[in-house]
Structures are given as C-alpha cells and as structure tokens.
Design a protein that fits this description.
Blueprint lengths: L1 H74 L8 H4 L7 H7 L2 H34 L3 H16 L2 H12 L5 H8 L7 H4 L1 H26 L3 H9 L4 H12 L1 H16 L3 H6 L11 H11 L3 H34 L1
Helix pairs in contact: 1-15, 3-15, 4-9, 4-12, 5-9, 9-12, 10-11, 12-15, 14-15
C-alpha cells in the first residue's frame, strides 16, 4: 500500500511533465510553422514585386532603350538621306558633335530654346499658372467651374489647331490683334516678325497653362485648413500665408509641374514651326526646329540625331534637378 501511494504521485508528475513537454513542443512547432509561412509569404511578395517591376522595365528597355541606343550610334555616323551617307553610312566618331559645338547656329538655337523655356514654361506656365490657381481657389464654385473650363479648353485643342489660331490672330495686317489695335489708332504691328519670341511665349503659355492650374490648384486645396487657420491666428496676412505656409507645402507639386513642362517645352516643334518657322533669321530657331532643318532640309540625319541627343541630355538634366529639389523637400518634411 505504501509503495503504491508513493509511486502514484511520481507517475502523475511524470504525466504532467510529459504533457508540458508536448505542449511546449506543439508551441515550438507552431512558431516554426508561422515563421515558415511568413518566409514563404515574403518570397511570394518579392517575386510579385520583381514581376511587376520587371514587365515595365523590359517594356521601357525595348521601346525606349533600343531607340536611344540606335540614335547614339546614328549620331556617330555620317548617315544621310541622299549621297554616299544614305547608301553606305560610315562611322565618324565624334565628328558630328565637333561640328555641332563649333557651329554658331547651334549656340543660337540653344539660347533660343532656353529663352523659350524660361519665358513660356517657367514664368508663363508655372509662375503665372500658380498665381492663377491661387486666384481660382478664392472663387465661388460656379465661377471656378467656368474659368477652369475655359482654361482647359485651350489645353485639349490639338497643337496644330492652336498654331493656326494664333497665326490668324497675330498675322499682319488683317489679324484680330491688329484689328483691335486699329480701334485705338495703333498698328498694324508685325508681331511674328518684330516680336517673334514674345509671341511664341504668349501662345505656348496660353496653350499649356491649364495643366499647371489643375495640378497646382489641387495641391493648394489639399493644404490642411487647420494650418492656415493657425497662421491667421498668429497674425499672418494672406501674402505671408501664401509665401510661408502654402508654397512650402505644394513645393513637390511645383517641382513635378516644372519637370513635365520643361520636357514638353524643350521638345515643342509644331507651334514654333507653324508660326515663325524658326525666323526671322535664327531668332526662334530652337533646337527641335534646328534638328528638323539639319535632318530634312539638309538631309544630314547623323548631325540631326546628334542635336536631338544633346537636347535629350539637357532635358534629363533639368528634370533630374527638379526631382532632386522635390526629394529634398520630402526628406525635410518627414524629418
């Protein structure tokens, strides 16, 4: 009896120890299983990310990388539309770039491109567009809808149509602008001859401002009202609120608009070619027009491709600068 009573607690303790060991083993197996499932889920997510990024990367590499590589090679040859360069183009190295950088016409074209960029994209579309977006934000709902509809209408009209509209408006002596000036005893003025670049800047600003107004207007409406009210309680006027509150908060949107309008404006061809054709002289002979002239007027496709690649590098450099500004702004706001 005594032996039995002594052995029963030992057996019960052994059973409990065995049960605890089994429970611990089950918990451990459960944790291992969860870790394995988590690792498998992470592998699937990484695979999904690779697939989602790989498809557009391959698409860009084929449809963008291949033409760029072909263009780089063409710019290093004497490829032409007529003559020996058409039948048997030869590799000439950097000869096209040497001829390009030693040409005064190229530097005149670069100067005209930068003048057109600053006037119509940076000042016209971004600065004036931002001020117009601020003005639109203060309007009532009905007035805002009407004004935005008018602004967007200029944006959705095809560029060739816009070019002919402005050609008719600025023509001498029967253009609408000269007719209006005649009512006050002024004119007629040869706008597309005497004021060629300012006329192009105004026309391109009118055509492209809608994008800036829409994007920057949306960014301004996204500014928290609590921040604006706090600034007003601190005694800030409308100008200080715009300068020190709203503008820093929409800086990323401004950089994005600057980058896109820069790319679009540097590659603008139709509006300039229809209105002035690069003239008078070379005053509006921007790089896209200069590229067209070298490629399809003088049939030097190798040289024309070299000009277009220089324009591409310039556009990418400016866009990279704008994006760096936007990235630094995001880092500052997160800090």
């Amino acid at each position: 009896m005594g032996g039995i009573t002594v052995q029963r607690p030992a057996a019960a303790g052994a059973g409990r120890a065995s049960g605890n060991a089994g429970a611990a083993s089950a918990k451990f197996d459960g944790k291992v299983g969860k870790v394995g499932q988590s690792a498998a889920r992470r592998r699937k997510q990484r695979l999904l990310v690779m697939v989602m990024l790989g498809i557009p990367t391959l698409y860009m590499a084929f449809f963008l990388g291949v033409p760029v590589a072909r263009g780089i090679y063409t710019s290093l040859t004497n490829f032409a539309l007529t003559g020996p360069g058409a039948a048997h183009p030869q590799f000439v190295g950097g000869s096209n770039y040497g001829d390009l950088f030693s040409s005064s016409q190229f530097w005149d074209g670069l100067k005209a491109s930068l003048e057109y960029l600053v006037g119509s994209a940076i000042v016209g579309q971004v600065v004036v567009g931002f001020l117009l977006a601020v003005f639109v934000e203060r309007l009532g709902k009905m007035a805002r809808s009407v004004l935005l509809s008018v602004v967007v209408l200029a944006w959705i009209v095809p560029e060739i149509v816009v070019a002919f509209i402005w050609s008719g408006y600025l023509s001498t002596p029967s253009g609408l602008a000269n007719v209006l000036l005649g009512f006050v005893g002024v004119g007629p003025e040869p706008f597309l001859f005497k004021y060629a670049m300012p006329s192009l800047i105004v026309a391109n600003t009118w055509r492209g401002m809608a994008f800036s107004v829409l994007v920057l207007g949306a960014a301004l409406q996204a500014v928290p009202t609590e921040v604006i009210e706090s600034a007003r309680l601190d005694g800030a006027g409308e100008w200080r609120i715009l300068r020190y509150v709203k503008l820093p908060l929409v800086r990323t949107a401004v950089a994005t608009v600057l980058a896109l309008t820069t790319l679009w404006t540097l590659s603008d061809f139709t509006l300039i070619f229809v209105l002035t054709g690069g003239g008078p002289g070379n005053s509006t002979d921007v790089l896209p027009v200069y590229t067209y002239q070298q490629s399809f007027s003088f049939y030097e496709l190798g040289l024309g491709t070299a000009i277009s690649l220089v324009l591409l590098v310039l556009a990418c450099a400016l866009a990279y600068f704008y994006m760096k500004v936007a990235a630094s702004d995001l880092k500052t706001r997160r800090a």
